[in-house]
Amino acid sequence: MPADAAIHVEVCCATPELQAMSALTLPAGTTAGEALARSGLLRRFPGIDPATITLGVAGKTVESGRVLRDGERLEVLRPLTVDPKEARRRRAASGKSQSRRSGKA
Q1: Is-above-0.70 flag for pTM?
Q2: pLDDT per position as a tens digit, 62-88
Q3: How far is the CA of 63 from the CAs of 13, 42, 54, 69, 74, in angstroms?
Q4: Superfamily of domain 6-93, CATH level 4
Q5: Are residues 17 and 37 in contact, defined by beta-carbon separation less than 8 angstroms?
């Protein structure tokens, strides 16, 4: 890709109350952290701390220095409120497992 080429990416962030997406055209070689800064989402979500936030692309966490590719969607990932293992334990204890097995004994 030539040095002056552009990439098109989306930067997404959501809270239980608000969801936002910013579609950007950026220079090739732009990192995830740079895209987040340019997206304007840091102003819309003042609780985001760029130093401690977790970023993701295609459901997998990425470092802020990762170079984005054309067409990717950068996601600001919120911390989990409940440990997934603990949530499964709670469901099992209440008799509501996430996947029920069909009548095999």
Answers
A1: yes
A2: 999 999 999 999 999 977 666 778 778
A3: 16, 17, 8, 14, 11
A4: Beta-grasp domain (3.10.20.30)
A5: no
